[in-house]
Design goal:
The structure is a single chain. By secondary structure, the protein is mainly β. The strands form 2 sheets. Strands 2, 4, 5, 6, 9, 10 and 11 form a 7-stranded mixed β-sheet that branches. Strands 1-3-8-7 form a 4-stranded antiparallel β-sheet, with no helix packed on it. Strand 4 (32-39) and strand 5 (46-51) form a beta hairpin. Helices cover 0% and strands 48% of the residues.
């Protein structure tokens, strides 16, 4: 059973930075494409960033390009989301997600492409 545990959320002011981490249990982390999603109250879950199992393919939603960076450390079974220049509209619960893939370049961008999810971590950005 694969388990994902996020950490790093919090309450910050606009313009501040946060770094989210997601640790994945198991010995085959490098076989999984990873993604970060977020969900604000009353809204659907939204793709934020994704990385292929090799880290060579990375995608971002347009609203975070240039501010957020996704990275992974396969030796530590961890995927990160560095969030800079945070805005109030970034306020949401952030989830990491995993899907096993044979394709080194595959990166899912829809929630239904992932089958393992963390419990979420709250990010609140005040103006």
């Amino acid at each position: 059973q694969v388990q994902l545990v996020e950490s790093g959320g919090g309450l910050v002011q606009a313009g501040d930075s946060l770094r989210l981490s997601c640790v994945v249990s198991g010995r085959t982390f490098s076989s999984y494409a990873m993604g970060w999603f977020r969900q604000a109250p009353g809204k659907e879950r939204e793709f934020v960033a994704g990385t292929s199992r090799s880290g060579s393919s990375i995608y971002y939603v347009d609203s975070v390009k240039g501010r957020f960076t996704i990275s992974r450390d396969n030796a530590k079974n961890t995927v990160f989301l560095q969030m800079n220049s945070l805005k109030p509209e970034d306020t949401a619960v952030y989830y990491c997600a995993a899907v096993k893939s044979d394709d080194y370049y595959y990166t899912g961008r829809r929630p239904d492409e992932y089958n393992y999810w963390g419990q979420g971590t709250q990010v609140t950005v005040s103006s």
